[in-house]
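Hi,

I'm pasting everything inline rather than attaching a file, because the server keeps stripping attachments. The sequence lines come first, and each chain or strand is labelled.
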Amino acid sequence: MTKIQPRTLYREVADRIRDLIEHGELAPGERISEKQLCENFGVSRTPLREALKVLASEGLVELLPNRGARVKQLTYKMVKDTYDLMGALEGLSGELACQQISDEGIAAICALHERMLVHYHNRELPEYFQVNQRIHESLLAASNNDVLLEMYNNLSQRVKRVRYSKKMTESYWRRAVQDHEEMIAALKKRDSKRLGQVLRDHLCNKLEVASIAGVIDDGETRNAANS
Amino acid sequence: MTKIQPRTLYREVADRIRDLIEHGELAPGERISEKQLCENFGVSRTPLREALKVLASEGLVELLPNRGARVKQLTYKMVKDTYDLMGALEGLSGELACQQISDEGIAAICALHERMLVHYHNRELPEYFQVNQRIHESLLAASNNDVLLEMYNNLSQRVKRVRYSKKMTESYWRRAVQDHEEMIAALKKRDSKRLGQVLRDHLCNKLEVASIAGVIDDGETRNAANS
DNA sequence: TGAGAGAATTTTGAATTCATAATACCTTTC
DNA sequence: GAAAGGTATTATGAATTCAAAATTCTCTCA
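And the predicted assembly:
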């Protein structure tokens, strides 16, 4: 049950721009021309500029006063930082979920887990990922912490456009599944500390970070300090 | 070394409104009149409305399309959710700091810790709190994760206006100091897991959440689900 | 007296306009 | 031919204007 958002132009525009960025139609670092976007969307500059301000505080766009807006560059470090953060948030979601989830909720997640195992054994990677994601979303929802959900979604949005090649080697995959076995065990026992720990360390995040290395080629060195 | 922000009107206005909210001059739930604020600030509606959009996506303000803006109400649950989140973030900051901080950095934090102990023994509560906060800020800085810092600052800003009465009982205080002893020990050993754990469980957060109960009297029940 | 319909007023959403800063272009000079 | 300086053009920041939605007020009628 999600609250309906009355539509206003600037929200519509913000959604559209988010999409453009996510799908790479506005490339990272690319200058955003107000005039051109206004014409594309058929709106005046006022709602467009409002949308840009929102996107800037969401971290998707960079506003250089008097010098226009550009799509925020993702550096390797930023993405790694973001994944570290998401790991911590997943850990928290696990701890909270353990304390709040109903027995039915646990059963539902176990069911998802079983389905995931099937996909694993059948080597159906896309389906595996999909169910895997639903498990994590379920935990997030079960944690019943709106602020956590909001933050997580924001972070997730920021790195969505990184289309890293998930180099799912056999051994990585096996370990990921093992992690999930541990998660389920902890969840069933409602061992929140344990579940939190497993989720924080969950291979998934680390793997993804590793894969990114080959995708984002920023000028900075990999170990550079913050800008 | 922090980057200078070119001033624009909407940023100035956003800063001012943040202040007003933080200090309660704009009360929670209060309707924000565009006209009045414009006159107070001496600006037109355009930059004001841009500022409101930014504040809305920072979670300080609520925008009801066609019906104006109001200062976001803080419910007990929202504040508790926020503190849970901040605890998780502090935990992460500890883990990361352990791995990255220099020996000098550790020494600096130890020095702060010693100062804090002095204030503890002298029963100087305000000074204690101040040094205590600097320790946590130092860890956050040492974690060298800009995204983490950004999120933490945002969350912190949201709950800043809650002026709960810190009922620092003797036993609470003693335990908080014990927590800090453990933190320092873990930091010196660069035991990131341990430091993370201590920070996540650090009494500080839980205590504050407890204190809030008496301050925020929302219509909702304490255990209510999300709105 | 009070409820409800409808007009007047206010407030918001969005387009337009105006001023200024940044950029591009062209000329001049060495 | 390249660099420097100055002008023209463009893009941005912010005020103003216009349109539509919401709110308030008033008047009627039960």
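Residues 33-35, 45, 49, 65-68 of chain B lie near DNA strand C (CB under 10 Å from a C1').

If the labels don't parse on your end, tell me and I'll reformat.
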